[in-house]
Amino acid sequence: MIDVHIVILAAGKGTRMQSALPKVLHRVAGRPMIDYVLDTADTLAPRTTTVVVGHKAEVLRAALRARPGLGFVVQEPQQGTAHALLTTESALAGQTGTLVLLSGDVPLLSAHTLATLVEQHRLAAAAATVVTAFVDNPHGYGRIVRLETGISHIVEDGDATPAQRQIREINSGIYAFDLNGLFESVRSIAAENAQSEYYLPDLVGIYRKRGLTVETVTVASPHEIQGVNSRLELATMTRAVRQHKNAELMAAGVTLDDPATTYVDGDVVVGTDTVLHPGVSLERGTVVGSGCEIHSGVRIVSSRIGDHTTVLDHCVITDSVVDAHAVIGPFAHLRNQASVGARAKVGNFVELKKTRLGDGSKSMHLAYLGDAVIGSNVNIGAGVITCNYDGTHKRTTTIEDGAFIGSDTQLIAPITVGEGAYVGTGTTVRENVPAGSLAVSAGKQRNIEGWVEGKKKRT
Known about the structure:
Elements: E1 4-10, E2 27-28, E3 31-32, H1 33-42, E4 48-53, H2 57-63, E5 70-74, H3 81-86, E6 98-103, H4 111-123, E7 128-134, E8 143-147, E9 150-155, E10 169-178, H5 182-186, H6 202-209, E11 214-218, H7 231-251, E12 255-256, E13 263-264, E14 269-270, E15 275-276, E16 281-283, E17 287-288, E18 293-294, E19 299-301, E20 304-305, E21 310-311, E22 316-318, E23 321-322, E24 327-328, E25 333-335, E26 339-340, E27 345-348, E28 351-353, E29 356-357, E30 362-365, E31 368-370, E32 372-374, E33 379-380, E34 385-387, E35 397-399, E36 404-405, E37 410-412, E38 415-417, E39 422-423, E40 428-429, E41 438-439, H8 451-458
Parallel strand pairs: 1-4, 1-6, 4-5, 7-11, 12-15, 13-16, 14-17, 15-18, 16-19, 17-20, 18-21, 19-22, 20-23, 21-24, 22-25, 23-26, 24-27, 25-28, 26-29, 27-30, 28-31, 29-32, 30-33, 32-35, 33-36, 34-37, 35-38, 36-39, 37-40, 39-41
Antiparallel strand pairs: 2-3, 6-10, 7-10, 8-9
């Protein structure tokens, strides 16, 4: 097999985005658009992958740090696509095979199209192969000019004649090149165009004049080669990606009450017979089991929801796990490795942070449970707080199986409430509570009769 080398162009500022963020880091359906490009490129098992960076280069490098094996070259200044490719010459020195050139702002190119591009390029022993598409409105795109013998050259929109602007076959900016002699040929490109830039499409005409083979691969769906150049186009592409994901979910047995207002990232998994109500957002690898019901206004990020769980309206769940048959909400907040056991209940305005709530336990109203380990069948009353921060360190509260924590209790960590113990309402717990004990801290109630009338006379 001939080696494949990937080059991804990501140096542009993206002026129309009006953003300090590199354009390719803007998110399409929850993921930076360049992530889609890199994932698709990886399906070719390339020997090397090089990203051409420029505007905010260090920001882009940092964002891609978690991806192993990437190489980076800097294009500065940005003088066109041919100049961008030329900056990779030293990175690819001594390499042979096929170079596949992709754009970091074209996220929907399919692995099938990419495989077809490489295969057709090899079978034709071509010097270059261009991905093209037929579109109804080709404005702004380079046009594919053909002769009876095949492609003649590519003309940019700004340099095209009125007749050429009627051509509907466009250049996608995605190519396969034979590395042999590529960079020498790129150096022969002149900046003789409306933008005074070095256009890589000019290489097609140069190769044809030299009698070299230039092939094309035409995609059936033009949306595959659609780029993102503005916030409007970003929103349009995100909508298309989300609609596709929602269609997949419904085909797999998930009910979406209103697909137009349901936002599910591409890497999210949802089980059969789960119902998603309007305004639900499922993000970043979340897994929702079968037979669940997720009500309106819920946002779940990087979390796992067990089978037959109900999440009521307006809950936020991040980096957490909820086991089967639990009930969460409404208006509950689970975060930072919170864990809710099977059949447990977390109710109105209850927050769990880095806390394990055991099987069958419940905290139904107005509680903060942070850095706590709570056993099974525990009842947490309204207004309970684990005081987990001593000003320097986070401390752990442990509540063992079957304990009962009365309303308005403060648990000063580190502390343990033993199995089956009771803590009376309004108690401040500063010492461990033995199993089976009752802890109280309030003094005896004293009523002062006539106090109110006396206060009125004094004022």
